[in-house]
């Protein structure tokens, strides 16, 4: 059991996730109120990683439903094992009535469970269901989710209503490529997850890349913080997330870098940015400006 927000903060840090207090409060309330938590924010700010960390902290199985355009309910909930059903029908053909065969083949043992159904039928302590990038799915799929989000149950025509054995901890993430329907939002607690401040990102780099020299870790955190601040941020289409910062720190450690300079930044820009225009925008002059002491 999580006793308090501070307790949750400490436990998350124990598994390498450094949340701020507002995020920890949202997660704590989602656990206490048994409500789904919708996390929106830019790619790479730690939405998916929070679900992974919470699963570790709670000792729950992590079930992940990765959303995409064209996702259908059978991919998320269940589908019938048609080959096995067909074999059974052939085996009893002529010995059972049509009604008996129908009752036989629509039994739970012929059900292929997908993440939503797995989450509902997970034994204690229950599962943590991550519905990742729900904004990539279409509106009909959002409508399909409403029963699950509101009541932790789903309706299967052949079997009836399936209710949760233990209410699953449910995290939805969205990069806000499109606006989600209000009906989804009303069933969830909501939190906008922003880029971390300099001190939190430094703590993450220290934890994830312990081999990086302390002075270089501070330079990395300073550089990324300035890169994301105005007016520099306007020069880029997509700013680096936490994952890119950590990967960059690992690359710098692998190169035995002693200190950041414009040449090193230019040579490794492809780790921070994934678009040609953004790599080109990080010019040596801009890199030098970002690396200059603040009091200069």
Automatic annotation (TrEMBL):
Stored SMART domains: AAA (SM00382)
Protein name: ATPase
Pfam families for the chain: AAA_5 (PF07728)
GO MF term set: ATP binding; ATP hydrolysis activity
AAA+ ATPase domain residues: 33-196
InterPro entries: AAA+_ATPase, ATPase_dyneun-rel_AAA, CbbQ/NirQ/NorQ/GpvN, P-loop_NTPase
Top-level taxon of origin: Bacteria
Species: Caldimonas thermodepolymerans
């Amino acid at each position: 059991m999580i006793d308090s927000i501070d307790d949750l903060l400490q436990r998350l840090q124990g598994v390498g996730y450094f949340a701020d207090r507002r995020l920890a409060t949202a997660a704590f309330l989602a656990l206490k109120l048994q409500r789904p938590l919708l996390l929106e924010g830019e790619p790479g700010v730690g939405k998916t990683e929070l679900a992974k960390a919470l699963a570790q902290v709670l000792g729950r199985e992590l079930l992940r439903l990765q959303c995409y355009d064209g996702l259908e309910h059978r991919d998320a909930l269940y589908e019938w094992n048609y080959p096995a059903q067909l074999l059974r029908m052939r085996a009893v053909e002529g010995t059972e009535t049509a009604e008996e065969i129908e009752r036989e083949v629509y039994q739970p043992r012929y059900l292929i469970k997908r993440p939503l159904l797995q989450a509902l039928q997970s034994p204690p302590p229950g599962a943590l269901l991550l519905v990742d990038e729900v904004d990539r799915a279409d509106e009909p799929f959002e409508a399909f989710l409403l029963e699950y989000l509101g009541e932790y149950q789903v309706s299967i025509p052949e079997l009836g209503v399936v209710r949760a054995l233990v209410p699953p901890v449910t995290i939805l993430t969205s990069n806000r490529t499109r606006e989600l329907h209000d009906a989804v939002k009303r069933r969830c607690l909501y939190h906008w997850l922003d880029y971390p401040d300099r001190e939190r990102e430094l703590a993450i780099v220290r934890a994830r890349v312990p081999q990086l020299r302390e002075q270089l870790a501070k330079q990395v955190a300073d550089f990324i913080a300035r890169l994301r601040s105005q007016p520099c941020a306007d020069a880029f289409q997509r700013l680096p997330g936490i994952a890119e910062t950590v990967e960059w720190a690992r690359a710098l450690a692998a190169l035995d870098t002693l200190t950041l300079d414009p040449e090193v930044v230019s040579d490794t820009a492809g780790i921070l940015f994934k678009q040609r225009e953004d790599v080109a925008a990080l010019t040596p002059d801009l890199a030098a400006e970002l690396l200059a002491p603040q009091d200069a």
